[in-house]
Amino acid sequence: LQPYFSKAKVPYPAKKLGFLVFKKTKQLQLYASYQSRWHYIRSYPIHAASGKMGPKLKEGDGQVPEGVYRITALNPDSRFDLSMHISYPNDFDRFHARLDGRKSLGGNIFIHGGDSSEGCVALGDGAIEQLFPLVYSVGVNNTVVVIAPFDLRRHKPIMAKSAPKWLPVLYGKISKSLRYFPVHKSHA
Questions:
Q1: What's the pTM value of the predicted model, to 2 decimals?
Q2: Omega into 164 within 30° of 0, i.e. cis?
Q3: Closest Cα to residue 57, out of 17, 93, 6, 12?
Q4: Which class for 75: exposed (0-12), middle (13-18), buried (19 or more C-beta within 10 A)?
Q5: What is the 3-state secondary structure (H, E, C) of 109-139?
Q6: 188 band by pLDDT with thresholds 50, 70 and 90
Q7: Which residues contact 184 (CB under 8 A, 6 or more apart)?
Q8: What is the C-alpha to C-alpha distance for residues 113 and 74, in angstroms, rounded to an integer?
């Protein structure tokens, strides 16, 4: 990854990382923080991510969650080459589940290698073998993961009639988080 960081004029490794996951375009964008700003580093295609647009509501629904998360653990012994656990369910997910009367939200959501997934984000082995050691060197506490249905910096969310009543609040939180990350010119 050193050449990508050099091209972005960001020291390798950076002090903070951002992973922006866009479900519709099946893309993970890597950003690094330098001089109090986020800088685009590169994008990775997502090989597999199950479910559809919309948040994860319960265990076993096959949905990739949507929200603002952190990497909480690294698993070098994953059955998917390597994996990084994300903090789903977060406080927002738990709060709205309580209001809705939902239980069993699920968990064990990972960004991992391989090319299959059920509720996780599969990047393939080559990509995870680049990102895993980077996150290890930067630290899990310094890596934010924003998972969105699509790039809310460029398009307004579409709300289905069957969507949870709190979905506009969630998409507002995601949009606010995305504003800190500049849209890379090749993605404009």
A1: 0.95
A2: no
A3: 93
A4: middle
A5: CEEECCCCCCCCEECCHHHHHHHHHHHHHHC
A6: very low
A7: 29, 40, 43
A8: 12
Pairing of strands 27-34, 16-22: antiparallel
Query: In this predicted structure, what is the pLDDT of residue 186?
Result: 59
Q: Would you say 131 and 111 are in contact if contact means Cβ atoms under 8 Å apart?
A: yes
Query: What totals of helices (H) and strands (E) does the chain contain, helices first?
Result: 4, 8
Per-residue pLDDT, 9: 96
Residue 14: count other Cβ atoms within 10 Å of its Cβ: 22
| Cβ contacts of 13-17, under 8 Å, gap ≥ 24 | 13/134, 13/137, 13/138, 14/138, 15/138, 15/142, 16/138, 16/142, 16/143, 16/144, 17/134, 17/135, 17/138, 17/142, 17/143, 17/144
DSSP three-state, residue 23: coil
Q: How many CB atoms lie within 10 A of CB 73?
A: 11
Tokens of 122: 């599969």
